[in-house]
Amino acid sequence: MEKIVDLKDTKSVRNMNTALALYDEMINEHNAIEAVNKYLVPEYIQHNPSIATGAEALGQAFGYIGHTHPTSRVEIHRIIAAGDYVWSHVIFYNLSNDDPSDKGTAGVDILKFNDEGKIIEHWDVLQEIIDPSKTANTNGQV
Protein backbone atom coordinates (compact mmCIF):
# COMPACT_ATOMS: atom_id res chain seq x y z
CA MET A 1 0.00 0.00 0.00
CA GLU A 2 1.25 3.44 -0.89
CA LYS A 3 0.80 5.99 1.92
CA ILE A 4 1.10 9.70 1.29
CA VAL A 5 1.05 11.73 4.49
CA ASP A 6 3.29 14.24 6.24
CA LEU A 7 4.45 12.21 9.23
CA LYS A 8 4.99 15.45 11.18
CA ASP A 9 1.28 16.28 10.78
CA THR A 10 -0.16 14.28 13.67
CA LYS A 11 -3.76 15.12 12.72
CA SER A 12 -3.32 13.73 9.21
CA VAL A 13 -1.55 10.62 10.50
CA ARG A 14 -4.34 10.05 13.05
CA ASN A 15 -7.02 10.45 10.37
CA MET A 16 -5.23 8.07 8.00
CA ASN A 17 -4.91 5.45 10.73
CA THR A 18 -8.60 5.84 11.59
CA ALA A 19 -9.59 5.33 7.95
CA LEU A 20 -7.43 2.20 7.73
CA ALA A 21 -8.94 0.85 10.95
CA LEU A 22 -12.48 1.54 9.68
CA TYR A 23 -11.87 -0.40 6.46
CA ASP A 24 -10.36 -3.31 8.31
CA GLU A 25 -12.92 -3.57 11.09
CA MET A 26 -16.03 -2.68 9.09
CA ILE A 27 -15.33 -4.67 5.92
CA ASN A 28 -12.54 -7.21 6.41
CA GLU A 29 -13.44 -8.24 9.96
CA HIS A 30 -17.22 -7.84 9.38
CA ASN A 31 -17.73 -5.77 12.55
CA ALA A 32 -19.63 -2.96 10.85
CA ILE A 33 -21.84 -1.76 13.70
CA GLU A 34 -18.97 -1.63 16.19
CA ALA A 35 -16.67 0.08 13.67
CA VAL A 36 -19.07 2.87 12.72
CA ASN A 37 -19.88 3.49 16.38
CA LYS A 38 -16.16 3.82 17.10
CA TYR A 39 -15.03 5.91 14.11
CA LEU A 40 -18.04 7.93 12.86
CA VAL A 41 -20.24 10.61 14.37
CA PRO A 42 -23.92 9.55 14.52
CA GLU A 43 -24.93 12.36 12.13
CA TYR A 44 -22.35 11.26 9.52
CA ILE A 45 -23.21 12.62 6.07
CA GLN A 46 -23.27 10.04 3.26
CA HIS A 47 -23.08 11.11 -0.40
CA ASN A 48 -23.25 7.61 -1.94
CA PRO A 49 -26.83 7.46 -3.28
CA SER A 50 -27.14 3.74 -2.42
CA ILE A 51 -26.75 4.20 1.35
CA ALA A 52 -28.82 6.42 3.63
CA THR A 53 -27.09 9.15 5.58
CA GLY A 54 -26.06 8.52 9.18
CA ALA A 55 -23.58 6.20 10.87
CA GLU A 56 -26.30 3.70 11.73
CA ALA A 57 -27.27 3.30 8.07
CA LEU A 58 -23.67 2.64 7.04
CA GLY A 59 -23.27 0.08 9.80
CA GLN A 60 -26.47 -1.67 8.75
CA ALA A 61 -25.45 -1.68 5.07
CA PHE A 62 -22.03 -3.20 5.69
CA GLY A 63 -23.40 -5.46 8.41
CA TYR A 64 -25.78 -6.90 5.82
CA ILE A 65 -22.99 -7.25 3.24
CA GLY A 66 -20.70 -9.02 5.73
CA HIS A 67 -23.50 -11.36 6.80
CA THR A 68 -24.68 -12.27 3.29
CA HIS A 69 -21.22 -12.25 1.66
CA PRO A 70 -18.71 -13.53 4.22
CA THR A 71 -15.85 -13.35 1.70
CA SER A 72 -16.38 -9.60 1.17
CA ARG A 73 -13.22 -7.61 1.72
CA VAL A 74 -11.34 -4.47 0.75
CA GLU A 75 -7.75 -3.98 -0.37
CA ILE A 76 -6.28 -0.50 -0.05
CA HIS A 77 -3.79 0.42 -2.74
CA ARG A 78 -3.21 4.11 -1.99
CA ILE A 79 -4.12 6.40 0.86
CA ILE A 80 -3.52 10.14 1.05
CA ALA A 81 -4.13 12.20 4.17
CA ALA A 82 -4.04 15.98 4.52
CA GLY A 83 -5.68 17.91 7.32
CA ASP A 84 -9.34 16.96 7.71
CA TYR A 85 -9.42 14.74 4.59
CA VAL A 86 -8.35 11.22 3.66
CA TRP A 87 -8.53 9.85 0.11
CA SER A 88 -8.29 6.12 -0.45
CA HIS A 89 -7.90 4.16 -3.70
CA VAL A 90 -9.27 0.69 -3.06
CA ILE A 91 -10.69 -2.50 -4.52
CA PHE A 92 -13.82 -3.94 -2.93
CA TYR A 93 -14.33 -7.69 -3.46
CA ASN A 94 -17.50 -9.75 -3.12
CA LEU A 95 -19.76 -6.94 -1.91
CA SER A 96 -22.66 -8.33 -3.93
CA ASN A 97 -21.63 -11.89 -4.77
CA ASP A 98 -19.66 -14.87 -3.47
CA ASP A 99 -17.79 -15.60 -6.69
CA PRO A 100 -14.19 -16.57 -5.81
CA SER A 101 -13.06 -15.09 -9.14
CA ASP A 102 -14.74 -11.71 -8.51
CA LYS A 103 -12.55 -9.04 -10.12
CA GLY A 104 -13.92 -6.46 -7.70
CA THR A 105 -14.95 -2.86 -7.81
CA ALA A 106 -12.35 -0.09 -7.84
CA GLY A 107 -13.19 2.84 -5.63
CA VAL A 108 -11.97 6.17 -4.44
CA ASP A 109 -13.31 7.20 -1.05
CA ILE A 110 -13.04 10.71 0.35
CA LEU A 111 -13.51 10.97 4.10
CA LYS A 112 -13.82 14.21 6.07
CA PHE A 113 -12.90 14.24 9.77
CA ASN A 114 -13.77 16.53 12.65
CA ASP A 115 -11.25 17.91 15.14
CA GLU A 116 -11.77 14.88 17.41
CA GLY A 117 -10.73 12.47 14.64
CA LYS A 118 -14.22 11.13 13.89
CA ILE A 119 -15.49 10.72 10.33
CA ILE A 120 -18.23 13.23 9.57
CA GLU A 121 -18.72 12.95 5.79
CA HIS A 122 -18.06 10.59 2.87
CA TRP A 123 -18.00 10.75 -0.91
CA ASP A 124 -17.03 7.97 -3.31
CA VAL A 125 -16.75 6.95 -6.93
CA LEU A 126 -16.96 3.29 -7.88
CA GLN A 127 -16.04 1.46 -11.08
CA GLU A 128 -16.42 -2.22 -11.86
CA ILE A 129 -13.09 -3.84 -12.70
CA ILE A 130 -13.33 -5.30 -16.16
CA ASP A 131 -11.35 -7.93 -18.01
CA PRO A 132 -8.03 -6.32 -19.10
CA SER A 133 -8.43 -7.84 -22.56
CA LYS A 134 -11.47 -5.58 -23.05
CA THR A 135 -9.85 -2.29 -22.07
CA ALA A 136 -8.45 0.47 -24.30
CA ASN A 137 -5.09 0.36 -22.46
CA THR A 138 -3.02 -1.98 -20.33
CA ASN A 139 -2.55 0.39 -17.37
CA GLY A 140 -4.96 -1.34 -14.99
CA GLN A 141 -7.66 0.30 -12.90
CA VAL A 142 -5.72 0.61 -9.63
Placed side by side, the strands forming the largest sheet appear as 1-3-4-5-6-2
Could you tell me the strand content as a percent range?
A: 25-35%
Could you list the spans in which at least 5 consecutive residues all have pLDDT below 50?
A: none
Run of helices and strands? EHHEHEEEE
Give the termini separation: 11 Å
Overall CATH class = Alpha Beta
CATH architecture, by name, is Roll
Number of helices: 3
Q: What profile does the largest beta sheet have?
A: 6 strands, mixed
Estimated radius of gyration: 15 Å
Structural category? alpha/beta
What is the total tally of β strands? 6
The outline comes out as globular
What percentage of residues falls in helices of 4 or more residues?
A: 25-40%
Give the tally of structural domains: 1
Which fold name fills CATH's third level, the topology?
A: Nuclear Transport Factor 2, Chain: A
The average pLDDT value, as a whole number, equals: 96
Organism: Owenweeksia hongkongensis (strain DSM 17368 / CIP 108786 / JCM 12287 / NRRL B-23963 / UST20020801)
Domain SnoaL-like: 22-122
Protein name: SnoaL-like domain-containing protein
Pfam families: SnoaL_2
